Amino acid sequence: MTEADAHMDFDLELEPDDLDEEAPEAPIGDPCLVVDDLHVVYRVVGSRARKEAEKGAEVREAQTKPSFVKRLVTASRQHTGGVSEVHAVRGISFTVRHGESVGIVGINGSGKSTLLRAIAGLMPPSSGSVHVSGEPSLLGVNAALMPQLTGERNIMIGGLALGLTPKQVEERFDEVVEFAGIGDFVYLPMRTYSSGMAARLRFAISSSASPDILMIDEALATGDAAFKARSKARIEDVRQNAGTVFLVSHSISTVEAMCTRVLWVHQGKLVMDGPTHEVAERYKDYVRSLRPVGRKGGKGGKGGGRAGGRNGKGARKVGVGGATGS
Ligand SMILES: Nc1ncnc2c1ncn2[C@@H]1O[C@H](COP(=O)(O)OP(=O)(O)OP(=O)(O)O)[C@@H](O)[C@H]1O
């Protein structure tokens, strides 16, 4: 797959709901999250998995010498391809303060979800570290809820994981179901849900406890206009209470409407970090440059005119060389 193909589901179109919207300012407080030279490496077994992984990140053969016992055991198995390592996050560092809403953008396979999961504590760093102040009870929307259990049971488990008491979960149950818009499906196993329903339920659970850090991975793309409006209001609530929001989205207009700061990740590295309008404009230019000749970049064209300093703070360009396909 070429890089031009890889970005194709990135949506530069402005959503009607988001037109001319910018994330409102909120008081910015002390640092609440420090990510220091973070590396995340996946180990991939078998050639098919390796092919999948090669889409975006650096892949290399794992430097492992199998133990004597392992060599004996695998000698009797059919060879399925070696063990590879996918270096999905490569030396990312940044600091986030209370009250910031941070968008993470990048083409497919660039490492956004892996970074989010590592920040949420769902993925152990291979090296480097993530320091979180306050409640470490982060339940990212990618947190593994259990597909074989009903939505009802998952709301309870997710609520408890966020630090709520059983009584508090019960009190918030109706609100979570209504927010997610899943109706009576809540009494069916989650494996019967569409991916959109599951994403909306995870978002509703993870935002129900006013977490210190709210992580959102694509959930906003899965709802209708009313769900988006509810989500926006909830994100603002979290920020106004000096919480921090992380948002991974393929919709640049959603990031522009909801975030005060954007991190641009490419091939596992942070290539730009700064105020939303600056990073979004540069990122849109980059995505347009990837479009094959003859394909109109008109979607993004509409969104290109919203430059103009909001707070005068400059973006930190960490090394855009990576974004040109290094
Ligand atoms: N469980 C896994 N095992 C092995 N490799 C993985 C795994 N999950 C992700 N990867 C690889 O790590 C790299 C980063 O993936 P990640 O999902 O973080 O990217 P992304 O930017 O969120 O992508 P997308 O926009 O397509 O969702 C990719 O090369 C991907 O193939």
UniProtKB/TrEMBL annotation:
<keyword id="KW-0547">Nucleotide-binding</keyword>
<dbReference type="InterPro" id="IPR015860">
    <property type="entry name" value="ABC_transpr_TagH-like"/>
</dbReference>
<dbReference type="InterPro" id="IPR003439">
    <property type="entry name" value="ABC_transporter-like_ATP-bd"/>
</dbReference>
<feature type="region of interest" description="Disordered">
    <location>
        <begin position="291"/>
        <end position="326"/>
    </location>
</feature>
<feature type="domain" description="ABC transporter">
    <location>
        <begin position="70"/>
        <end position="292"/>
    </location>
</feature>
<dbReference type="InterPro" id="IPR003593">
    <property type="entry name" value="AAA+_ATPase"/>
</dbReference>
<feature type="compositionally biased region" description="Gly residues">
    <location>
        <begin position="300"/>
        <end position="312"/>
    </location>
</feature>
<dbReference type="InterPro" id="IPR050683">
    <property type="entry name" value="Bact_Polysacc_Export_ATP-bd"/>
</dbReference>
<keyword id="KW-0813">Transport</keyword>
<dbReference type="InterPro" id="IPR017871">
    <property type="entry name" value="ABC_transporter-like_CS"/>
</dbReference>
<dbReference type="GO" id="GO:0005524">
    <property type="term" value="F:ATP binding"/>
</dbReference>
<dbReference type="Pfam" id="PF00005">
    <property type="entry name" value="ABC_tran"/>
</dbReference>
<dbReference type="InterPro" id="IPR027417">
    <property type="entry name" value="P-loop_NTPase"/>
</dbReference>
<comment type="similarity">
    <text>Belongs to the ABC transporter superfamily.</text>
</comment>
<keyword id="KW-0067">ATP-binding</keyword>
<protein>
    <submittedName>
        <fullName>ABC transporter ATP-binding protein</fullName>
    </submittedName>
</protein>
